[in-house]
Amino acid sequence: MTNKIWVAEAPSNIALIKYMGKTEKSGNRPTNGSLSYSLDHLRTRVELSLRPDGQAGDQWAPLNRQGWQPLTLSTKGQERFLKHLQMLKSEFGFSAGFLVQSANNFPSDCGLASSASSFAALTLAGVRAIREMQGKMILTPNEISILSRKGSGSSCRSLFEGFSLWRDEGAERIDLGIGKLWHQVILVDDSLKAVSSSEAHLRVASSDLFNGRVERAERRLKNLIALMREKKWRQSFEICWQEFWDMHALFETSNPAFGYMRSGSLDVLNFVREQVWGKLGDGPLVTMDAGANVHLLYREDQADLARMMGRQLGEKWQVISNLS
Ligand code: PMV
User: Fold this and answer.
1) Contact, 158 vs 12, CB < 8 A?
2) pLDDT band at 46 (very low <50, low <70, confident <90, very high)
3) Residue 199 Cα, ligand 1 centroid: separation in angstroms?
């Protein structure tokens, strides 16, 4: 029995073209391709070790490490996490029990989802541990992405730096010729979501607006990739804006309807559209997840604008950012 600890970290990611809707009940296969940017400053760390008592079942515990904030996971959350590890073990015919410890470098109760970074980090650590003990080759990031997808769809885009493109099985890195982006998330609401994203994937199919959704998302995906490569920032902003409103409109027109948009979200969105893009003719890409918080992405040369907006928005809301 080894007392080795396998460590892996993975970033969160924010989608510009959204994964919303699944083609099958299980396996997290998306109805359309999606494109995301990895948020390197919002990370999960997973440490895996074999259970010292040699038992077969896996256990989860919060990880206490300096610089990392121990996760609080509900019983349901722990079960989902460990079920994914069990899937990895079955895939490779491995049976010994693990102790899984995990932590985020951001607070877990601030309204930022951590399922993408946690499932990606768990898949990385699990694959490394199992393959090493079996004396087999480690898989490629694309192969690991396919496995991660089975636990949480959006986590398959958290295995790469920069932009990731996910069409069906797993994601891959995509080079859009754009360097590092500055990221801010404006936390307008930190309450727990009333409708989980798993439930949202199911309910959107009941919206009248779901007709044509796949075609719209695929067209935007193709156009956004081309526009970003041509450095057409304003048109890229317009596509991202249309895309997150499309997703939120699906939520609001589902049966039964639900929604995440809050008055604070609208205040931030109006400010960015009217005061920033409207007055300067330039600004950040804007998007929202299945939540109330607003994500802003700036080009590297927009650091001053990002700082200025961070100060202004920070007067009212908490802003988490990768700007120093
Ligand atoms: O991976 P899930 O099932 O939590 O889906 C998340 C989907 C969105 O975050 C709303 C959009 C996306 O593409 O990340």
Assistant:
1) yes
2) very high
3) 11
